[in-house]
Design brief:
Elements lengths: L4 E7 L13 H17 L14 E10 L7 E12 L3 E9 L6 E11 L12 H12 L3
Antiparallel strand pairs: 1-3, 2-5, 3-4, 4-5
Length: about 140
């Protein structure tokens, strides 16, 4: 059984387009990933100089827009680790309402860890990989 990381976020009026439809899902995915990685690392902030495993770039995003989100208010972002590779991780995501009655967007997101010096892919530290694996299999 895969464990789900849950992040609550708030959509503000200025994030809606001219038709009143929310279009900034990727921004909220990024915020959720930051908190998820902080939790996995056991750190209170996002500091790539201290924690090399958060020096990542988005390698790919696959998103399906299910239902429009049309007004400011709360949303929930959920991540589940699907696949861990040497220098990458693919996570499934769902963006939904807090009551879990509407799914606005879902899909997959892959990030790649880079070396801060060379900007080339580099393996996760053993500690971070172990934390990801434990999160992936927690509850099995």
């Amino acid at each position: 059984m895969t464990t789900t990381f849950t992040y609550s976020s708030e959509v503000f009026f200025d994030e809606l387009d001219g038709l009143g439809v929310f279009t900034r899902y990727l921004l909220h995915l990024e915020r959720a990933q930051q908190k998820f990685f902080q939790e996995l690392l056991g750190v209170p902030d996002f500091n790539a100089e201290r924690d090399e495993d958060i020096y990542v770039v988005v390698h790919g995003v696959e998103a399906r827009f299910r239902e429009p989100f049309r007004k400011p208010g709360p949303i929930v972002v959920e991540y589940q680790i699907e696949r861990i590779r040497s220098a990458g991780v693919t996570m499934r995501f769902v963006i939904r309402n807090p009551e879990n009655t509407s799914v606005y967007c879902d899909g997959k997101r892959t990030v790649c860890k880079l070396s801060a010096e060379t900007h080339q892919p580099t393996p996760w530290t053993e500690k971070f990989r172990t934390a990801m694996e434990a999160h992936q299999t927690k509850g099995s």
